[in-house]
Design a protein that fits this description.
Length: 498
């Protein structure tokens, strides 16, 4: 008999806390629908009290998906719990995820409190949350560094108070796999009433051990895993859904059953990466560009004779379908639509027509259009609601001449123009831009990345600008890297001007 393991996806909550990767509500709904199709059991949709945007996203996601439980995060604070319950009002299945720090450093420095008082606050929060929903999960923040005996007392108390799931976060990513597994085992063995709740893993990747710790937790009795697509999350991220899922699918001898449709893994990964403007590292397990690319002669020879020689996973099992990656100017709408749907993007006819127009323009400039290009085009109208838009950009540069740029911006319907010279074409263009947008802002980071290879490629630019003591992120993509840079700058500026 196999054991059922529940997959709790926190891409839209812990994952979305990555600076510069915030999604708007429409984008979050797109991700939530993809997670539903992927088969996750629980979607953590946000932290409703944290902002009106998060509150609204939890409401809209609750309306948009049917099967997964929708979960909302709170602190052990009554107001948070009330707001979360309100945000979950349309969810068909709902869960409140409340909790408090339990390590000595959290108790002392964060709460200026003591162990007994923390148990009381935990119990009170769980009981209060149970007034609104039947399904309450409790997190013992920094459980990774919490003394096991005390942790067992906390877990026992919250189970008595009525939780269905107890989350044991390794918040700082500190634990060794053996240590984390032993912690779960300790709780399984020492908590009275443990059979009335499920233990959940929630492992961060600060020391690169999030996936290993998660699996170790499962092997010792945890029956829920908290994960994110591509392992995104604050700092070094969270345990990645695709790694945990494929470990469990590959090691059938473990007899652990999950509901994930693995063929949706790759499209979901690409969608999240594209919407969050967060590239996946090429050597990332399961979903990186090189995850199935055999380059050495010996490996290629072996794989050509029989894929099993060097491949433990069939790429098609995670939804990688190499045969159809390239589209050209001769490809029709249907081919584009199919490719978009393989990538997890379903578009209405009107939007598809727009994307197709952009696709044809790009195909005129670039011979082969790959998945990354398509994802960039499909996300291109994210600038539609921008108050500041690029009207035109002309740059003259070369050897022996000082680069000069002239730029036209449309700001809330009014046109503005400026020109400037600079050390290079990007510098000239940004100086011209700054003549119109006259604010004290400074560039903190600037990266240009070619999507694949070839001089006809689309360049992606990520920038970080500091303005008024805060940092803002911007993104631009264009076959002209000067234009991509200016687009990224304008994307940033739109975030702090209104
Ligand atoms: O890492 C953590 O401790 C968390 C909790 C808020 C669940 O994300
Ligand atoms: Zn976390």
């Amino acid at each position: 008999m196999s054991d059922r393991l529940f997959v709790f996806d926190t891409t839209l909550r812990d994952g979305e806390q990555v600076p510069g990767c915030q999604l708007n509500t429409v984008e979050k709904i797109q991700v939530a629908r993809a997670l539903e199709a992927l088969g996750v059991d629980v979607i953590e949709a946000g932290f409703p009290v944290s902002s009106p945007g998060d509150f609204n996203s939890v409401i809209e996601i609750s309306k948009a998906v049917t099967w997964p439980t929708i979960c909302a995060l709170t602190r052990a604070v009554k107001k948070d719990i009330e707001v979360a319950a309100d945000a979950l009002k349309y969810a068909k299945r709902k869960r409140i995820h409340t909790g408090i720090g339990t390590s000595d450093s959290h108790i002392k420095y964060k709460f200026n409190s003591n162990r007994e008082e923390i148990i009381e606050r935990a119990v009170e929060a769980v009981k209060y949350a149970r007034r609104f929903v039947d399904d309450v999960e409790f997190y013992a923040e920094d459980a990774g560094r919490t003394d096991n005996e005390y942790l067992a007392r906390v877990v026992e108390a919250v189970i008595k108070a009525g939780v269905t799931v107890v989350n044991i976060p390794d918040t700082t990513g500190y634990c060794l796999p053996s240590e984390y597994g032993a912690k779960i085992k300790y709780l399984m063995d020492h908590v009275d009433g443990i059979e009335n709740a499920i233990l959940s893993t929630h492992c961060h990747n600060d020391l690169g051990m999030a996936t290993a710790n998660t699996i170790s937790g499962v092997l010792n009795g945890a029956r829920q895993v908290e994960v994110t697509i591509n392992g995104i999350g604050e700092r070094a991220g969270n345990a990645s859904l695709e790694e945990v899922a494929m470990i469990l699918k590959s090691h059938r001898e473990l007899n652990i059953d999950i509901n994930i449709n693995t063929q949706k893994i790759y499209p979901t990964s690409r969608m999240v990466s594209s919407l969050m403007n967060m590239p996946v590292q090429p050597n990332k397990a399961i979903v990186g560009k090189n995850a199935f690319a055999h380059s050495s002669g010996i490996h290629q020879d072996g794989v050509l004779k029989n894929t099993q020689t060097y491949e433990i996973i069939n790429p098609q099992d995670v939804g990688i379908n190499d045969n159809s990656i390239v589209l050209t100017a001769r490809s029709g709408r249907a081919a584009l639509k199919h490719r978009l749907s393989v990538l997890g993007i379903e578009l209405e006819q009107e939007k598809l027509d727009k994307v197709y127009e952009e696709f044809l323009k790009l195909a005129d400039r670039k011979k082969d259009i790959n998945d990354d290009d398509i994802l960039v085009i499909a996300g291109a109208d994210r600038t539609e609601n921008h108050r500041i838009k690029l009207e035109y950009l002309q740059v003259t540069s070369g050897v022996g001449v000082r680069p000069v740029a002239s730029i036209g911006l449309n700001i809330a319907g009014e046109s503005f123009e400026a020109a400037a010279s600079g050390n290079g074409p990007v510098d000239a263009a940004i100086k011209a831009l700054k003549k119109i947008i006259n604010r004290q802002m400074s560039l903190r980071e600037f990266t240009i990345q070619a999507i694949s290879k070839g001089s006809d490629d689309v360049g992606k630019v990520h920038i970080q600008v500091e303005y008024d003591g805060r940092e803002y992120y911007g993104f631009g993509a264009n076959t002209d890297i000067v234009a991509a840079s200016v687009e990224a700058y304008i994307d940033c500026i739109n975030k702090f001007t209104n």
